[in-house]
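G., before I forget:
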Amino acid sequence: MNAFQYATAHSPESAHELVAANGAYLAGGNDLLSLLKDYLVSASILVNIKSLPGLNKIVRGEKAWTIGALVTIAEIERDAAVKWAFPGLHEAAAEIGSQQIRNVATVGGNLAQHSRCWYFRHRDTVCLKKHGDLCYARHGENRYHSLFTGNDCISPLVSSLATVFAALDATAIVLRDAKETRLTMGELYQKAWEDPTAHNSLRPGDLILRVEIPAGRRRSAYLQASDKHAFDWALVSCAAAADVVDGKLKSPRVALGSISPKPHEVAAANEFLEGKTLDEATAAAAADLILKDAKPLEHNAYKVPLAHALIRRTLLKLKGDA
Ligand SMILES: Cc1cc2nc3c(=O)[nH]c(=O)nc-3n(C[C@H](O)[C@H](O)[C@H](O)COP(=O)(O)OP(=O)(O)OC[C@H]3O[C@@H](n4cnc5c(N)ncnc54)[C@H](O)[C@@H]3O)c2cc1C
Ligand code: SF4
């Protein structure tokens, strides 16, 4: 690990000032410490943000719920009101890592965590994401990689929270250049879609302050498939949310994780589901639309039927939520 300075910030503004161009924010440390130990990130200063006031709360507002960037995943999982209002968010939180990880991992750190691609995580492999000139996964071990991408890197989104936040129409509020900037989940990962070196659209010094979820969208569900029951990332995840009026879907949204560098959403599928009553055939037709343009690689074609099944099951969970 390279030498670094360490400071604790007591306001978002001072955190931003301290981190400057070459520092890193330290929240739960789950991902950052591994990145530092493996020489994948070098920071001149670590800015501990765990003492920032007001960012560790879940607040229920009339129009939106606010989840502070320092709220832990365990706090989301345990919050009975969140479970009632956003069952899909509760389900996603409960699937992350293990209890020990959830106890310390924060919302901000979860959204900003780096690629899990094993080539990226190998300290001696200089792939495109590390400004090399080759994606080793494309013609190598790509079992865990994307079915969709906008660039030559095929490393998929890892944040389970981003997937469910996308379906819930949530917005991340980021402190950028002394101003608060609002980013949809699509915007938060758009740069990773376009640029092989990016993990997300955050710029140096950007600080995620909170996530806002519109109130009133009560029905939501999340499912994921993983190799292991616990202590593992998703092979594919799916989140869905909608209002259900007289048995019909209103403003439905389906988002998938682990198959694209950003939450994978297909507007045509959401439009198709609008006003529909959910049954097996409708859910399957939506899944067909969502996966229509998938481009499987040598070792990850299994993700297509897996995603199809998850979409169908997640959508049908919305129905069972009556
Ligand atoms: C075995 C295992 C299984 C896992 N399974 C899953 C899974 O299924 N789904 C999933 O989503 N995650 C999973 N994770 C990842 C885990 O959820 C993340 O590592 C964790 O959420 C990171 O949070 P943290 O607070 O520890 O972040 P840190 O490690 O402190 O930070 C991570 C990154 O985010 C930056 N950062 C932190 N806070 C902010 C902020 N407020 N604004 C801007 N940047 C910030 C840091 O500088 C760093 O680059 C797993 C981890 C492990 C070890
Ligand atoms: S998928 Fe991305 S992170 Fe993995 S080897 Fe290819 S360029 Fe590197």
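The chain has a mean pLDDT of 96. DSSP finds 13 helices and eleven strands in the chain.

More on Monday.
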